[in-house]
Amino acid sequence: MAVSSGKDVRETRIVTRRLHDVANSWTYDNARADGAYEMWDEVLRRADPADIHAQVKASGLRGRGGANFPTAVKWESLPDVFPRYLVINGDEGEPSTFKDREIIEKDPHALVEGVCIEAYACKINKAFIYLRGEFALGYDRVVQAVADATANGWVGQNIKGSGFDLDIVVHRGAGAYICGDESALIESLEGKRGMPRIKPPLPIHAGVYAKPTVVNNVETASTITHIMKMGGEEYAKLGVGRSTGTRVAAISGHVKNPGIYEIEFGMTFREIIFDLCGGLRDDRELKFFLPGGASFQWLVNCDEHLDQIYDIDDISAKLGTTLGSGAIMVYDDTTDPLLVAWRLAKFYAHESCGTCTPCREGSGWIEKILYRMSHGLGRPDDMDLLLSASANVSPDVMRAPFTQTTICPLGPSPVSAVASLQKYFRAEVDAACANQPTLIPVSAT
Amino acid sequence: MTFTAKNLERAHAIIAQYPDPHSAILPLAHVAQDQDGWLTNEAMAEIAELVGTSSADVQGVCSFYTMYKRRPCGKLVVSVCTNVTCLVVGGPEVLHHLEARYGADDDVFVEEVECLAACGNAPAMQVNYEYHEHLTPEMAAAIVDDYKSGVLHARGVSGGSK
Ligand SMILES: Cc1cc2nc3c(=O)[nH]c(=O)nc-3n(C[C@H](O)[C@H](O)[C@H](O)COP(=O)(O)O)c2cc1C
Ligand code: SF4
Question: Which residues of chain A lie closer than 8 angstroms to B16, CB-CB?
């Protein structure tokens, strides 16, 4: 039976401090009383965009949207072309990822202040905050925050006499997970179907309206203010290796206390699941967990996996998975892994934009096969059929990070679940599929 | 003319925010859907005119997005999540209960949706994009009934503020 570490494990609340500690933290007055816009004010007085670059570079900040790309490196790639745009990715639609919603709804001023500082650093005068359409309350709150910030002179023309102009537009999507991909998000922002673009060019070279565009996640932008407050080097002291600082993790499933936890990189999954979240509901046994959201490989109940530290590079080197979107899903021993794999596949089949044949068709086939496997109709050869179907979209099925025959990483995402079934649950899957007749013989790839 | 005078004014304000009016298609479709209860062909034609494109273009764009409803769906859109966290804590039971209860009710449109980013308090649903979390089937039905009777005041069908 998996047990707690016995240590006194705590959150490190930096980005989420205000939303926990301040009542009605989304209002301008309360956020301002808690120090909102003080850093922005100081940045304007220092008038040194290069210093923001230097601090963010020293902080080692890596994007919190899932791809872990170093934020300062992205900024450095900006070509000397104007106008240029900043786009904040608040499309948060990855299954079981709910950390950006918390910031959007409860601390919109942290986001707006981060946008101001980032725009100033990158000499950008127009920013778009793209929120997923379902975030109706979040939209109202961010719109209000921008209006209040504008009324108080933090956003708009010639901000506090600095000569710097910034206009922020809050944009609502309309229900499409794929618009979380930065190039699809840009298409959507241009009023088109949300289909990922073929790269290159990258958005940083030709993004919205074919102009240079910095795309950053909500949490990434919100962190920048704190990096400026603490100083980049001080921020970099938190965490381990190249995973510096904290990460707002969204933990859900069969844990006693699911929710948002801001954790310093370097904590183990044992500490996260059994100490922070109180262990499993009804003290049941852990069966498996998804350490990085829906799109990457799973881990199971064993010491090696539980004692793995929360570190972007270490987990990928040792266990072939990643921390992705910051979601951690935990399942107890009552859970059928086939059912979880099927539901994820159904999600990807529904959300495929349809451009690439391997993704459009493959996700549908993977879903159909997993449906029958998880509903008592699986055939003895189905796991091999699944691996064979998966190979069309992700040729080296078991490999992590995944390979792909598609434009964007949505295509191979359901294959992570298939690979996890093969790796950890092959015997259980075969047993579940033993009693149906084999109709079509297939060979594994 | 579909948009009311007030909404037409809003539409022009929205268009003015963007360097390219084409960017306003999604927000304008939300305004139209909140007004009419669904996205009509007339509304899409008017949006096309406002942003300077064809009505086929607007229809092509809008049909990509699940939030836009191409037929009347009553006063309340009830979106129930059954994705992997809700799945293991009772989301499908909430969905089936509501489907059975409101299947013949023209005012209530019950749909299964993908993750709503409410997994910390699963199972979850939205009623006209307002969150309700930690549900049981009975609680979910009581909430929908409260909207129907006016005890709870709903957002627009596209989630526009009250
Ligand atoms: C299918 C797909 C969905 C994505 N969804 C999101 C999302 O909801 N939010 C997000 O910030 N990034 C998402 N991303 C990652 C973005 O493409 C991009 O890397 C990110 O917004 C960049 O910001 P960052 O550097 O601050 O992380 C997604 C990527 C893919 C391929
Ligand atoms: S991989 Fe899938 S979602 Fe991504 S571009 Fe291709 S078809 Fe669209």
Answer: none
